[in-house]
Amino acid sequence: MNRLARGTALAAVALTASLLAACGEAETSSPTTTTGGVPRLAFELTDAGCSPSRATVAARPVTIVGTNRTDRIDELELVDADKVVLGERESLKPDESAELTLTLQPGRYAVYCGFRSGQRGPGALVVTGRAVTAHGAGTAALDTAVARYRRYVAREAAQLVTRTHAFVAALNAGELQRAKDLFGSTRTHYETIEPIAESFGDLDPAIDARVNDVADRARWTGFHRIEQILWQRGTTKGTQRYGARLLADVRRLRARISGLGLQGAQVANGAVALLDEVSASKITGEEDRYSHTDLADFQANLTGSRAAFEALAPALRARGERRLIEQVEAQFARVQAGLDRYRRDTPLGFAPYTELTLRDRRAFAQQLAALTEPLAQVAGKLVARR
Questions:
Q1: Any residues with CB less than 8 A from the CB of 17 and at least 6 apart, and which?
Q2: What is the pLDDT of residues 172-228, one digit of tens each?
Q3: Inter-axis angle of helices 176-191 and 139-172, to 10 degrees?
Q4: CATH code at 353?
């Protein structure tokens, strides 16, 4: 998501209650429809923020539906009182809708309706009642799925630290070509688990902000700050302090991941969010705009999304969702086949982004849309009543 907006938005979470208290005329809504026994709570993304600005629901599985009513591409995000991002959907086109399904526990949450078109205040979601079992029916199968995915995330986080250490060593040694060769292969381990990393609002912008995501260029850090120096300036000079900060941040990320709570629907939402990342920045070429290593990021996002889905597949199968599994697997295969056309004998294993034609980008966009549609159904299937 937009990292500048994220930093500002998360800082605003603590103010949500007081702001809403001051807005005596704030619009309020409750769920009006259900699908498979799961209430659906609708928000519209407007130029003013969320409409309604407040909503209430009892603790239970809930599907939050966001519809973009602006004339720009926008985003939907749910943040809890501890400033942990529980889920997000990016790249919503005008009049397009997207869903987030989660089991919500009692408390206050902030709903952010839009970032790319400017900072707007959050909506508030109040969850009432008593705590509920996060996984509901089929708890054992979903517990197993989440445990499997957590192991995957832990492995990727460990690899990220190891690769970052080697990358920073090359920067410190002044080895320009080696640093360039390691840049993309190091980042892939971040890209596979990006939704998990984005759960921690302060770490994601520090590690992965692009130049247009920061208001103060002097505070810009992370992979892309180093990328700019390596490719635009053609030197490692000036990268050492950014490398040290990056290594410290990925170590912090690995440490914090171990204590992050997850639920099955959250893993499913993350699988979709990784595809949103591809649509938002990899296909457009804006992610790695200096090195043009976007296709390696594309592969990493796809790999991470598939790992999340495969962890959940046994739980889906136990719920009789074989047809959905087959649909998702077939679409993953189609996207992968398209990406495989760009495999090359390079340090990254892929061609530079500049080899993509407009026709290629459109084909990828269509393939991703065809994959996202059934994959977005998974979270709801995991919490729906049988």
A1: 108, 124
A2: 999 999 999 999 999 999 999 999 988 887 899 999 999 988 888 899 999 999 999
A3: 170
A4: 1.20.1420.20
> 133 lies in a domain?
no
Given 128, 148, 176, the domain boundary residue is 128
Same domain for 168 and 104: no
Do 253 and 200 form a contact (C-beta atoms < 8 A)? yes
Task: Identify which of 341, 336, 328 has the alpha carbon closest to the alpha carbon of residue 379.
Answer: 328
Rounded CA gap, 383 and 20, in Å? 31
Task: Count Cβ atoms within 10 A of the Cβ of residue 22 and give its class: 0-12 exposed, 13-18 middle, 19 or more buried.
Answer: exposed
Alpha helices by DSSP H, 73-132: none
One domain, residues 213 and 306? yes
pLDDT value of residue 27: 57
Strands of the chain (E only): list them: 28-29, 33-35, 38-46, 49-51, 54-58, 60-68, 74-79, 85-92, 97-104, 107-113, 123-128
Q: What is the pTM of this model?
A: 0.87
Place of tokens 């949103």: 276
322 burial via Cβ count (<10 Å: 0-12, 13-18, 19+): exposed
Do residue 198 and residue 100 come from a single domain?
Answer: no
Does some domain include residue 248?
A: yes
